[in-house]
Design brief:
This protein is α+β, with helices and mostly antiparallel strands. The chain has helices spanning about 5-20, 75-85, 100-105, 115-120, 135-140, 165-190, 200-205, 230-240, and strands at about 30-35, 40, 60, 65-70, 90-95, 130, 150-155, 160-165. The chain is built from 8 helices and 8 strands; from the N terminus they run H-E-E-E-E-H-E-H-H-E-H-E-E-H-H-H. The chain has an 8-stranded mixed sheet, sandwiched between helices. The longest helix has 23 residues, at about 165-190.
């Protein structure tokens, strides 16, 4: 894990990036990272992410108690803490309201079709969590069915959350979620995207080379026809190997 000073630098850089990309507006969104001592560094409430400086960040414990920092920790801290408590492998969480992904969340449509090879290998299906009142513990609880198996979740009427091994990993997953939503939306305008078949997915997972420099999954027997349940099991196993 990076030292605290480097984590602070990267957290500020990611804050500025999400604002520049239009993933947030006004004081929307919240970003956090796990510190070497186990505490969490999180963005404050009521501040535009493009204006965040190191002095604005707030340190909290895994219980949610403020440890250091002059501001009020994000009102969505319970979502972040829920993820950290259940995923010791996660060191960063990004919650934003990117336009296309949030449109799918508002329409309550998960990004679950098998459309993009790199997404099947890297993220799997992106589920939709049921609506929960923002700024309450309900938001964290809403992703409980998905937190162990997914690194990206749409929040009904409330945007998206992604998480990963570090800040840039979590951020780039958010970038990918928005790209997927944008492309899928465009495909619907053109008459609808065409899903990969089970055979095509099976062939993909047999022959996949390294994605983003990561190891490919183990080969599968070409005679195997995979069911939906088996497909999800394969995706979870591939994600473990990619991490």
């Amino acid at each position: 894990m990076l030292n605290a000073e480097r984590i602070i630098e990267e957290l500020v850089a990611v804050c500025h990036r999400v604002e520049a990309k239009g993933f947030v507006a006004a004081s929307d969104g919240n970003i956090s990272a796990r510190l070497p001592d186990g505490n969490i560094l999180i963005t404050p409430s009521s501040l535009n992410k493009g204006s965040v400086t190191p002095d604005d960040l707030v340190e909290i414990s895994l219980r949610g108690d403020r440890v250091a920092g002059r501001g009020t920790p994000s009102s969505e801290r319970e979502l972040h803490l829920f993820i950290y408590r259940h995923r010791p492998d996660v060191n960063a969480v990004v919650h934003c309201h990117p336009v296309y992904a949030t449109a799918y969340a508002a329409a309550r449509i998960p990004l679950s079709e098998r459309l993009f090879p790199e997404v099947i290998v890297g993220l799997g299906k992106i589920p939709l969590a049921p609506y929960a009142t923002p700024s309450t513990s309900e938001v964290g609880e809403s992703i409980a069915p998905f937190v162990m198996s997914s690194d990206a979740v749409l929040l009904a009427n409330h945007g998206a959350v992604t998480y990963g091994k570090d800040l840039w990993d979590a951020y780039f997953k958010m970038e990918k979620v928005e790209q997927i939503a944008h492309i899928e939306f465009a495909a619907r305008v053109l008459g609808g995207a065409k899903e990969l078949s089970s055979d095509e997915v099976s062939e993909l997972l047999r022959k996949t080379g390294p994605y983003d420099g990561k190891s490919a999954p183990a080969a599968l027997s070409p005679e195997i026809e995979i069911t939906e349940e088996e497909f999800q099991t394969i995706v979870r196993e591939v994600k473990k190997r990619l991490h």
